[in-house]
Design goal:
The chain is an all-alpha fold. It has 2 domains: 406 residues, Sodium/glucose cotransporter; 107 residues, no CATH class. The protein is built from 23 helices and no strands. α4 crosses α14 and α13 packs across α17. It is globular, with a radius of gyration of 23 Å. The N and C termini lie far apart (58 Å).
Length: 515
């Protein structure tokens, strides 16, 4: 690899990308004078931007570097079902079932955040506080995970520059456009980043498929089927099994967690609040599904090609280093074309990281400034103050995500493992039944929220004692997350059936049609 040429092309690409992000932030700052504008873009975001904002928040660099590398290496082609499940269940079905009702009800209730929705829908300030604390405790640490894997790519191209420097670049750039433009900046930068991600994935798959080791479309399956057991117990038969072979159970759990998990995550649900009208929802449903199919399937297909390109030898650094090493092995020659592809793919990983980071940070900041602080003060804060506080918290939380990522604090790493399942597990039951059923009661919502939370918390404590620590218990986080969502969805209506209902006047105000 001609390192000087690769570095030059990459720096130019990064400079152009950074300039575009900052310009969007400056432009968006004109539309974020109120808290509604800062958090939701005045609920006037179009279908393409909304769909890309949803998709880019969904797929971070963890998907490409972590999940795609691990599942592609261990499962093979069966891992693509995760991408399909994410597109169909996490996007198509989610938008069809949740978007219109969520937009309508949050407009009716004037709810800007998920905790505000819970308070207005169930007439419970304590539920708002509890939801805000859950978001803060489990989403801020999760934001540190978006840096995962980027270091391997940067180190390969810039071996003389510490990884922490590049993570700082990500944090600073994200902080600038997020603090300037809030949700508007996030949404429009997500649109640009989404285009980069689509182009990058398509180019990546084509370039890797054409490599001699893979053998093109005609020989790919045959070559993968011929992969021998290198001592890890995985053969070509496993790698080419359409249902994941011996990993079927593991595959199903991950499909459910990563697909249904989005239904209860506040940073994903927020996209429904902000879209401008019903017709936009119809378009965004299709766009986000196609986007997810391309990104999800492309990522896992890339992972399935890794054993061929790497000669069936797991690289130093383990499965987290599979994708970076695969890209550098296949594309790391002195050809200008492949050098440009590498630069684009690095921007792809940056885009995936920054879009998810900004979405999580904005959700976490609003949980404090809009949901928690006014309740602790026992009065509503002025909108001007809320905007200033939210901007400051966004900057603070971006900084914390950087610190957590660089210091690798054990408690933070452990919380990250449970964050997706515990947040969605706590919220999914009260949220979905809340927008659909007038029979859902306050007690039912509380039961669903608490039971979902405890379904993760109690087994974690038990397994930590039995297995000798939280890190070992974290291996069961996906199963606990899926169980938490199922429990929350089941408990909410059951408890609601036996507890005090809301009066007709209250329900009429909640379910009032606003379209």
């Amino acid at each position: 690899m001609d390192l000087a040429q690769t570095q030059t092309v990459t720096i130019v690409a990064l400079a152009i990308f950074a300039l575009i992000m900052v310009c969007i932030g400056v432009f968006s700052s004109l539309k974020t004078k109120t808290i509604d504008g800062f958090l939701l873009g005045n609920r006037n975001i179009g279908p393409w931007v909304s769909a890309f904002a949803y998709g880019t928040a969904y797929f971070s660099a963890v998907v490409f570097v972590g999940y795609a590398g691990q599942h592609g290496w261990n499962i093979g082609l069966g891992g693509i079902w995760i991408g399909i499940g994410n597109a169909v269940l996490g996007c198509l079905v989610a938008w069809l079932l949740l978007a219109r009702r969520t937009r309508t009800m949050t407009h009716t209730l004037n709810a800007k955040t998920m905790p505000e929705f819970f308070m207005a829908r169930f007439d419970s300030r304590s539920m708002k506080l509890f939801a805000a604390v859950i978001i803060f405790v489990f989403l801020v640490p999760y934001s540190a995970a978006v840096y995962k894997g980027l270091g391997n790519m940067f180190l390969a191209i810039f071996p003389q520059v510490p990884v922490n420097v590049w993570m700082l670049v990500i944090a600073v750039l994200t902080g600038i456009y997020l603090v300037l433009g809030g949700y508007v900046a996030t949404a429009y930068t997500d649109f640009v980043q989404g285009i980069v991600m689509i182009a990058g994935v398509i180019v990546m798959v084509i370039a890797l498929m054409k490599s001699d080791a893979v053998g093109g479309i005609t020989h790919f399956i045959d070559n993968l089927r011929a992969v021998p057991d290198n001592g890890d117990g995985i053969t070509g038969a496993q790698l080419t099994s359409w249902y994941g072979g011996s990993s079927l159970k593991f595959l199903c759990i991950n499909i459910m967690l990563t697909s249904f998990g989005t239904w209860g995550l506040p940073q994903m649900v927020q996209k429904y609040y902000a879209i401008k009208d019903v017709n936009s929802i119809k378009q965004a449903t299709i766009i986000s599904t196609v986007f997810s199919l391309i990104i999800g399937c492309g990522a896992y297909l890339t992972g399935s090609m890794s054993r061929l390109i790497l000669g069936n030898v797991l690289p130093d650094g383990g499965v987290d280093n599979v994708i970076p090493t695969t890209l550098l092995t296949a594309l790391g020659d002195s050809n200008m074309f492949t050098t440009i592809i590498l630069a684009v793919l690095l921007i792809l990983l940056l885009s995936a990281s920054m879009s998810t980071l900004s979405s999580i940070v904005l959700t976490s900041a609003s949980a404090i400034s809009v949901d928690l602080l006014p309740e602790l003060r026992k009065k509503d804060a002025k909108q001007d103050n809320q905007v200033i506080i939210t901007r400051a918290l966004c900057l603070l939380f971006v900084g914390l995500s950087y610190i957590f990522a660089t210091m690798n604090i054990s408690i933070i790493v452990n919380i990250m493992s449970f964050s997706w399942g515990i947040v969605s597990g706590a919220f999914i039951g009260p949220y979905i039944w809340g927008i659909y059923s007038k029979k859902t009661t306050r007690a039912g919502a509380w039961a669903g929220m608490l039971c979902g939370f405890l379904t993760v918390a109690l087994p974690t404590i038990f397994l930590s004692i039995q297995l000798g620590g939280v890190p070992k218990a974290a291996a069961f986080a996906p199963q606990m997350g899926v169980a938490a969502m199922a429990v929350s969805l089941a408990v909410t209506p059951i408890v609601s059936a036996f507890t005090k209902k809301y009066d007709d006047k209250f329900l009429k105000g909640v379910f009032k049609i606003t379209e």
